Hints:
Strand order of the largest sheet: 1-2-3
Strand content: under 5%
Shape: elongated
Number of helices: 12
Amino acid sequence: MENLVRKSFMTDLMSIEGGFxxxxxxxxxxGISSRIYPELKAEIESQTLSDDVVSDxxxxxxxxxxxxxxxxxxxxPELLWLLFVGKVHGSGDEDYIRIMQTELNKLNNSLSIDxxxxxxxxxxxxxxxxxxRNKIFSSILESSADLVSFRQDSVGYARKGIAxxxxxxxxxxxxxxxxxxxxxxxxVRHTSRDWDHISTVDYEFxxxxx
Length: 210
């Protein structure tokens, strides 16, 4: 049976990724681009990619390539989720890693703020107390407005879509702090917001209050 965290990751990611679109002129379906996967172009254009194919791509080409993913999966799935979706969405994981490195340096580390999860950053993360790792995650959530602004500036043609996607990433990440994973997805769906109309300011306020 597939690990429950990984299964939840696939479900959540595919709920964020839309249907068919032209991403930079390249046919893309459920986040899978024909530019990166030309061998799947026919299935992408006909929108017939199966859940299994999409999940296999996300697992093998993104999740399993994150250094220390098994430890993160066990200890901090909320952080692993952010690194995972950030990598899928193209360099977004660097934003989260820079925040992690900055916070780790406040705890007597001397990491380069390069946005790369290498052996030194991973070891520093493992070496600090769980409470400090939780504070790092809180710092990421508190930086949500900055993260949204950064993504918008770097991809100006899709400002609204980028903002909504980042907010969804952070909302799902927060839900991974809940230990009752079998019931987690339903609970999140029931408390989901109208992402097309929520503002960054509203989101920041709600995250700080909750």
